[in-house]
Design a protein that fits this description.
By secondary structure, the chain is mainly β. Helix content is 3%, strand content 25%.
């Protein structure tokens, strides 16, 4: 056993073995001959005590920069148009940010009679009867757009 992360090494009948892996290492390939080959604190394909492959564990593809950080699968950021609205890093960017409940940002709801135009903006209904996004005031004119950042109709 060349791997120094294996503790309690023994040899019997020309076969080497070990009792446990040192903290932060694991026998993720199941090959006792090469010992505790994986750094489970930072190896993307052998992350954590159970040697999880973060590429498959984080099945949601709407994220970038997958990593294994201190034994937990993680990712850098969500792809544009998606968000981690439940703040559960293990399931990634699960929410489309183009709905009336999450329009452009997690938790940004469009007002009554408004729809999300898919670009992060709540669009007021025609005829001026729909409220402005976030203000409760009525929009006037023909189908103005309510921007998330401005929280008002233009």
């Amino acid at each position: 056993l060349q791997n120094t992360a294996a503790a309690g090494r023994t040899c019997s009948s020309s076969t080497c073995n070990y009792a446990t892996c040192a903290m932060g290492f694991g026998d993720c390939d199941g090959n006792r001959a090469n010992g505790c080959e994986a750094n489970t604190a930072s190896t993307l394909t052998a992350c954590g005590a159970t040697c999880i492959n973060c590429n498959t564990a984080l099945q949601n593809t709407m994220m970038g920069g997958r990593s294994c950080d201190t034994g937990l699968c993680d990712y850098g950021m969500c792809t544009n148009g998606f968000g981690d609205c439940d703040t559960n890093r293990s399931n990634g960017c699960e929410t489309t940010l183009g709905t009336t409940m999450n329009c452009g940002a997690c938790g940004h709801s469009c007002g009554a009679g408004e729809t999300c135009n898919g670009m992060g903006e709540c669009q007021c209904g025609t005829g001026g009867s729909a409220p402005r996004s976030g203000t409760g005031e009525a929009c006037s004119g023909a189908t103005p757009t309510c921007n998330v950042a401005m929280s008002a109709c233009e």
